[in-house]
Amino acid sequence: MASSLTKDSVRPGTPGTGKTFFGHPRGLATLFMTEMWERFSYYGMRALLPLYLVAPGGLHLNAGTATAIYSVYVSLVYLLAMPGGWFGDRVWGPRKTVAVAGLVIMLGHLTLALPSSGTFYAGLGLVAIGSGLLKANISTMVGHLYDGPDDPRRDGGFTVFYMGINLGAFAAPLIIGTIGENVNWHFGFALAALGMALGLVQFLLGSRHLADRSSVVPKPLSAEEKAGTLRKAAIWAGIAVVAYSVIGFSGHYTLNWILVPLTLLGVIIPVMVLVNIKRDKELDRPEQSKMSAYIWFFVAAAVFWMIYDQGGSTLSIFADSSADNTVLGWEFPVSWYQSVNPVLIMALAPVFAWFWLALNKRGKEPSTIVKFASGLVLVGASFFLFLAPLSIADGGHKAAAMWLVAIYFVQTVGELLLSPVGLSVTTKMAPAKYASQMMGVWFLAVTAGDATTGLLSIAGVDLNRTGIVAMEATLAVVAGVAVWMYRKRVKELMGDVR
């Protein structure tokens, strides 16, 4: 990466020494590499997780329990992005929060590498906490590198930054997945820890190139607020310790005593957050109207992510047991399927950007609502497509690998229609009072979707059954059609947002 740093003139006040990273502030290289290594560790571990949970040499759990654990874990990562952003705003500042987050993630992966089921769940918890702390704050620091929202380089900077995400996500299953599946599961988790360690070291070494404001706590807690927060945290922690001690000593403890409360929180908290914002009397009428419209997008996104994120659990477990994971007679690790999405994102994102621009010039670019509806229909179509390999497996045969690649392809196209639009509409429709919190609210749609998958798995629903897959596919398509049918009403509620 050092070879891409060139001498260039920079706007006064731009962080850095005068050198740039592809024409952007040099601090972007630091954040790019930090995010790349963090995503390398996260997606590598995530690719191994469901396979390790069901493997005879792993925890040897049934597919339902494995899916529930995976879904709870992913929902927690996105749920904790909101308190992670709060820590950056009120306690440590973004820069210190990201440094602490990197350390927590690394310790989490090292804990996962220990050959013990007890420490395994503690490791998952640490990685989820660290990822939540890092997710919101590192994006905030990218924004700090530029001269406000009108800096013409800003959008390009975020594009370069997101390339780091996909590079890490693409490489991780190929490297960590191969080591974990073919050599030793715990070596794979240790390799994820090494990736995060490399990211943390280069972040600490390169942090001098970041903007000064990244070290500032924007709205520090007062002494009274700090005492109140610590008191509430201590009370809730005490309640949890007492409750789980009673359950444990009485001999009634099972894994569901952890999974059920966490999945319920993953559904209840997003609903509570939306209700609280919607009922805020300080919002004026246009803001209230926009929030009513936003709820449509939020629910639609939750349905989308409920199906989409099963690409790492339901589809992965199916591939492990029922797919012919070979290409021209050469067998590849199941975890490699998790590299399909990021490589497709990198290939297709520029095509979509060009396509929307070309349609916009002709006045024919689809509206936000139509893109959203199309994304939902496509994710539903991907699960209708899933019915084919399921039927092949029910007939006693192994399904070809290309069936799964086709499913991931359709889901990726749906993601490119829905996810960037969702991020954009979230910032545009956010009430002024909640401007800094709304990105966390968007992440809660992922939480709600994954928590719903977790609840279904805990309830004993086999997500690899034809009937259930067909029902989920139908739900997504019906939701997409409903959004499209009510597009005029939603557009009215959106006001001046397009």
TrEMBL record:
Gene3D superfamilies: MFS general substrate transporter like domains. One of its GO terms (molecular function) is tripeptide transmembrane transporter activity. It is a multi-pass membrane protein. One of its GO terms (cellular component) is plasma membrane. The chain crosses the membrane at residues 43-61, 67-86, 98-114, 120-138, 159-179, 185-205, 257-277, 289-308, 336-357, 369-388, 400-418, 439-461, 467-486. Pfam families: PTR2 (PF00854). InterPro entries: Dipep/tripep_permease (IPR005279), MFS_trans_sf (IPR036259), MFS_Transporters (IPR050171), POT_fam (IPR000109), PTR2_symporter_CS (IPR018456). It is found in: Cell membrane; Membrane. Belongs to the major facilitator superfamily. Proton-dependent oligopeptide transporter (POT/PTR) (TC 2.A.17) family. It comes from Streptomyces phaeoluteigriseus. Its main location: membrane. Residues 1-21 are annotated as: Disordered. Residues 12-21 have a biased composition (Low complexity). This is MFS transporter. The keyword Cell membrane applies. It comes from the Bacteria. Keywords: Cell membrane, Membrane, Transmembrane, Transmembrane helix, Transport. GO terms for biological process: tripeptide transmembrane transport.
